[in-house]
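HUMAN: Mind making up another protein with tokenized structure?

ASSISTANT:
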Amino acid sequence: MAKQPKVIRNKKGAVIGKIHQEGSFLVARNKKGNVVGKYDPKTNRTLDRNGRVFEKGNTLEALIED
């Protein structure tokens, strides 16, 4: 059974994105459904939408903008 996506909300409570599992990656999507980044638990790195290292650790929420 697939895990439910984590819904990301802004300070006003509006949905601004979601984080969900795709294969071995966690993938962040904005409110339009566009991929804004991926987290690779094998390397402990968050990648931006272009595949470049954004940060060490899981910092996907920082890539989702209001």
User: Anything to note?
Assistant: The longest strand covers residues 15-22. Residues 43 and 56 are 9 Å apart (CA to CA). The chain has one domain: 6-63.
